[in-house]
Specification:
By secondary structure, this protein is α/β, with parallel strands linked by helices. The protein folds into 3 domains: 165 residues, no CATH class; 227 residues, 3-Layer(aba) Sandwich (UDP-N-acetylmuramoyl-L-alanine:D-glutamate ligase), CATH 3.40.1190.10; 121 residues, Mur ligase, C-terminal domain (Protein-Tyrosine Phosphatase, Chain A). The chain contains 21 helices and 19 strands. The strands form 3 sheets. It has a 9-stranded mixed beta sheet with strand order 6-7-5-8-9-10-11-12-13, with helices on both faces. The radius of gyration is 30 Å and the shape is globular.
């Protein structure tokens, strides 16, 4: 290999490093910058790294190609005994270089920018710092490769004639390949290297957010958490409280320490009277971490269920982590509003003297009864602990939405807002985007968009809503994820329930939907009405192709992120 060949190959390899690196950074960001979680994700998706492993093995093979059958004289010249050996080695090297170059071009094409992602890579300040660290590692590798080159002198013998040849060693080529094909490891390594810096930066921003909150003693802070329903509760409570007070809520799914910190530093104003803080968690003690930032006066726990079991490890860990909010609120002397219909919550509620239960079942302090659901919306009656009652109507569909709106009503009534004053705000409540959002496309098609972060309870509620319609009911789903050891069992049960509620079922993804498919089949469903698509676009095309005299109601249940 000569210097020209090295430069050409390095240019192609560098382009491959950039494109592959961007894809890995995207996946790391989707995994919350958590190196252990990203490592688990890499293990689960190990098939995507098979080309890297094969090319590393090929690199090792090439490293042994250059003269191995020779002796060295005192001057350092290498004598090749076989006159045909140099020619054959050169040919083999050229073939390997050609193969690797083609593979690198393939990596560039496969990872080229322009692909539409549901949640594209965001070039945050943290991401830029990590990319700088990664770039330094790559530069060091490429510079090291260039200076590792050594000239090999070969004496090619042919009878009595001798000819001295000079060529580069394979070391630069090998080092460049290591940098390229180890990119999936170098990306999380950059995250680990930057960890002390990121911790320092985060602490500065978090402390600044704490300072801002401490300078607003009259601001009333409400924490909301739950395995599911917390984002909906946040939107509903904001609508009701906002009708009476100046209210700020964390936007979208800003439910992490940095999400809360950004909201406080960017959006909180002295005029705000209430701050609604959504609190999410994937691991034990992450709710406590959020409580240490916001110091909520009151709290709401919407649910406890088998969500993120892969990182929590057990349902008991989920329960105790969610109730870290209750512990914080109790220490502050506030009230904790609990969904009393949730069995796990109901069992733990007696441990808290300041607990207020809400729900549809008997025994709750605030209870919703006489629920009437149609495709136009829902009506229900709320009864308070002192026996007062009021009937509400809203545009939202399903009993589970009654549960969440009831929690918001209970909290507002606990503040002293009369039930009748909440009537108009309840009517105004709109569906949260991607959470049973009714999208009428006109003609013969209506979508129920329930694409956000599906879970067992949410799936059941969505199927119940689908059953309200006198129409051709179609389910489109990739199934549920992040359910740990119970994932296959819960998806199987989802398939059995779907078989009872749907006229057609379209599964997205051949691998992860196997348990759902088996559940549908074992329920005795007509499998001619089941279609397994490779992508969401193929699934929607299939839905369009169905011929039916009735209007089609299409439930989009869950939409897996780009790292699945």
């Amino acid at each position: 290999m000569n210097i020209a060949t090295f430069c050409i190959y390095s240019a192609v390899a560098l382009a491959a490093v950039i494109f592959c690196g961007l894809r890995e950074f995207h996946m790391l960001q989707l995994n919350g910058y958590k190196t252990p979680e990203h490592s688990w994700w890499m293990k689960k998706n190990k098939k995507r790294y098979i080309p890297n492993i094969l090319m590393l093995l090929l690199t090792v093979f090439v490293s042994f190609l250059y003269p191995v059958r020779h002796t060295s004289d005192p001057v350092g010249k290498q004598v090749l005994d076989d006159p045909a050996y140099y020619s054959s080695v050169g040919t083999a090297t050229i073939i390997c270089l050609a193969v690797m170059t083609l593979v690198n071009i393939g990596l560039i094409i496969a990872n080229k920018p322009g692909k539409k992602f549901k949640k594209p890579l965001v070039y945050t300040a943290r991401m830029k710092r990590m990319m700088i660290t990664f770039s330094i590692l790559i530069i060091l590798i490429f510079v090291g490769a260039f200076f590792s080159a050594g000239t090999v002198h070969v004496i090619k013998t042919n009878g009595d004639a001798e000819k001295q040849l000079r060529f580069w060693s394979n070391m630069p080529f090998i080092i460049v390949n290591l940098g390229l094909y180890l990119t999936p490891i170098l990306v999380p390594l950059s995250n680990i290297i930057n960890k002390p810096i990121e911790k320092s930066v985060q602490n500065w921003y978090i402390n600044d957010a704490k300072r801002i909150l401490s300078e607003m003693p009259d601001l009333h802070k409400i924490g909301i958490t739950g395995s599911y329903g917390k984002t909906s509760m946040k939107f509903y409570l904001s609508e009701l409280l906002g009708s009476q007070y100046e209210t700020l809520k964390t936007p979208e799914s800003f439910n992490t320490p940095m999400g809360v910190t950004i909201t406080v530093r960017r959006d909180l104003r002295p005029t705000h009277e209430y701050f609604i803080c959504e609190m999410g968690a994937r691991r034990v003690h992450e709710i406590k971490e959020l409580c240490d930032i916001a110091h909520p006066h009151d709290g709401i726990i919407t649910s406890v269920g088998p969500q993120h079991l892969e990182t929590f490890g057990s349902i008991d860990n989920v329960l105790n982590t969610k109730f870290e909010l209750a512990d914080s609120v109790q220490a502050a002397g506030g009230k904790i509003y609990l969904n009393g219909d949730n069995e796990l919550i109901r069992k733990k509620a007696p441990e808290y003297k300041n607990a207020v239960l809400y729900g549809l079942q008997e025994g709750n302090d605030y209870r919703a009864t006489d629920i009437s659901v149609s495709d136009r919306g829902t009506e229900f009656t709320v009864t308070t602990p002192n026996g007062e009652s009021f009937r509400y109507s809203m545009k939202l569909l399903g009993e589970h939405n009654v549960q969440n709106v009831l929690g918001a009503i209970a909290y507002c009534h606990g503040l002293g807002i009369a039930l009748e004053k909440l009537s108009l705000p309840v009517k105004r409540i709109a569906a949260v985007p991607h959470r049973l959002q009714l999208l009428d496309k006109g003609g013969n098609m209506t979508y129920i968009d329930d694409a956000y972060n599906s879970n067992p309870n949410g799936c059941r509620a969505a199927l119940n809503v689908l059953g309200l319609f006198d129409a051709c009911r179609i389910l489109v789903t990739p199934g549920m994820v992040e359910l740990g050891a119970k994932q296959e069992e819960l998806n199987y049960e989802f398939g059995q329930e779907a078989a009872k509620a749907c006229d057609y079922i379209v599964l997205v993804g051949k691998n992860q939907t196997v348990p759902i498919y088996n559940g549908i089949k074992d329920a005795g469903y007509n499998m001619e009405q089941v279609f397994v698509a490779d992508s969401l676009n193929e699934a929607l095309a299939k839905v369009q192709a169905y011929q039916t005299s009735k209007k089609k109601i299409v439930l989009l249940e869950n939409d897996l992120p780009d790292n699945y």
